[in-house]
UniProtKB/TrEMBL annotation:
One of its GO terms (molecular function) is oxidoreductase activity. Belongs to the short-chain dehydrogenases/reductases (SDR) family. CDD domains: SDR_c (cd05233). It comes from Mycolicibacterium chubuense (strain NBB4). PANTHER family: DEHYDROGENASE/REDUCTASE (SDR FAMILY) MEMBER 4 (PTHR43943), DEHYDROGENASE_REDUCTASE 4 (PTHR43943:SF2). This is Oxidoreductase. Keywords: Membrane, Oxidoreductase, Transmembrane, Transmembrane helix. It holds the Pfam family adh_short_C2. The chain crosses the membrane at residues 144-166. It comes from the Bacteria.
Length: 256
């Protein structure tokens, strides 16, 4: 390998990246990472003002960025997100399915409404968004999809069965997408965070947070920024031979 090839490994210059749930937490950290790596970034979330604030922040880092209000559970919004991205930046190279609904109900008390809302945002939205972006991903020489799942998809998840099951299903879709899209030059991988210090995490009771922390070897929450390296690996040329895989960024919480 020469210097020029090495310098291109994590370089996202001239690539367009969509990050759903990109206005806070892990999504915003990933969006920052992509902008700093040279990408044009589109952040999507439900709130228009949050989208604009995030886009302004990303532009302040020196990058090209727009915000597109999008509800992952609203099917019509998905096509509109892709259309706006393509009209603004000319294509889609990387899609990061990060938006999630953390609805939790104990087994025995699960409602149809909760199951439906979780399904629409955590599974239906990501899968249909990939379909909407597919023609543009096929046209990209550097196409990659990153599905954000969770270690909950791989471990015992009492009280979190709705969320964990949707993430497990998204993990299954990740493998199927990798197999079906490989001939189109599209790599598809997943990233499974452990406990991360975000708004979503802070809504849990302290004893639940303590339990998650104590379940890791490193005995601490991750910062959102600690997800950036793995995400870049999975979606840049540095991961050119990686597809159909999951990286568990969990502080050593999940025995393999």
């Amino acid at each position: 390998m020469d210097r020029a090839s090495f310098d291109r490994l994590f370089d996202m210059t001239d690539r367009t990246v969509i990050v759903t749930g990109g206005t806070r937490g892990i999504g915003l950290a990933l969006a920052e990472g992509y902008v700093l790596a040279g990408a044009r970034v589109v952040v999507a979330s439900r709130k228009a003002d949050a989208c604009e604030q995030a886009a302004q922040h990303l532009r302040g880092l020196g990058g090209s960025a727009i915000g597109v209000p999008t509800h992952l559970g609203a099917v019509d919004d998905l096509g509109a997100l892709v259309e706006r991205t393509v009209s603004e930046f000319g294509g889609v190279d990387v899609l990061v399915n990060n938006a999630a609904n953390p609805l939790a109900q104990p087994l025995g008390q699960i409602t149809v409404d909760a199951l439906t809302k979780s399904f629409e945002v955590n599974l239906q939205g990501p899968v249909l968004l990939v379909q909407e972006a597919l023609p543009h991903l096929k046209a990209s020489p550097h196409a990659a999809v990153l599905n954000m799942v969770s270690i909950g998809a791989f471990i015992f998840a009492p009280m979190l069965s709705i969320y964990a099951s949707m993430k497990a299903a998204l993990m299954s879709f990740t493998r199927s997408m990798a197999a079906e899209f490989v001939h189109d030059g599209i790599r598809v991988n997943a990233l499974a965070p452990g406990p991360v210090d975000t708004d979503m995490m802070r809504k849990n009771p302290q004893e639940a947070i303590d339990g998650m922390v104590n379940g890791t070897l490193m005995r601490r929450l991750a910062t959102a920024d600690e997800m950036v390296g793995a995400a870049l690996l999975l979606t840049s040329d540095a991961g050119s031979y990686l597809t159909g895989q999951v990286i568990m960024v969990d502080g050593g919480g999940t025995p393999r």
